[in-house]
Amino acid sequence: MASSITPSFQTSNLRSAFLGERNGIFVSSVPVTRVGFLRKIIECKESRIGKQPIVVPSNVRITLEGQDLKVKGPLGELSRTYPREVKVQRDESGVITVKKALETRRANQMHGLFRTLTDNMVVGVSKGFEKRLQLVGVGYRAMVEGKDLVLNLGFSHPVRMAIPDDLQVKVEENTRIIVSGYDKCNIGQFAASVRKWRPPEPYKGKGVKYADEIVRRKEGKAGKKK
After folding, report:
1. What DSSP string runs through the chain?
2. In terms of pTM, does the model score above 0.70?
């Protein structure tokens, strides 16, 4: 007697788990909704420094051609080319305003910077700037010889520095150096170059420092306690 035996794995409704069913038990699938992120463009606030207008004195002449600005006054003449992130405008009363041309992160960074640089140009050619340095140390002294600034800073030889044509350097009491001119960037660069030869050290304060600089002092090594 031939009897057909059906294997058990055929009767059991075994399907792949990838189809959502296993051993005859239907696994319900929950629809997952796609999560979306809403992007909101936030407009940055205008720089408090950048939005301030620049008043031009009567003895200063301004020439504006596109992104090029020229400023001429009784002390000298300066020019600057502005990047595309900012734009310079001048009204009929002679007031200069620097505005953002783009709404980008770089434009926000350039806005206040170039407004300050423009104001420094106007003030420089009309009033000028100065930077004062102080020499602290036994035997440290400075003098002006022709177009050179000569510094004695404890080296085996004196240090000679050529004075740029657009700067004036004076020495008072052999230890006070006054750097003046109409370009604030050049004044700061020359003063930093002088200070670099002997920066003030923190133990005795010896060196070349700015007149308004505060040198943080350190306590020296204490002797052995008995």
Report:
1. -------HHHHS----GGGTEETTEEPPPPPPPPP-----PPPPPPPTTTTS-BPPPTT-EEEEETTEEEEE-SS-EEEEE--TTEEEEE-TTS-EEEEESS-SHHHHHHHHHHHHHHHHHHHHHHT-EEEEEEEESTT-EEEEETTEEEEESSSSS-EEEEPPTTEEEEEETTTEEEEEES-HHHHHHHHHHHHHTSPPPTTT--EEEETT--PPP---PPPPP-
2. yes
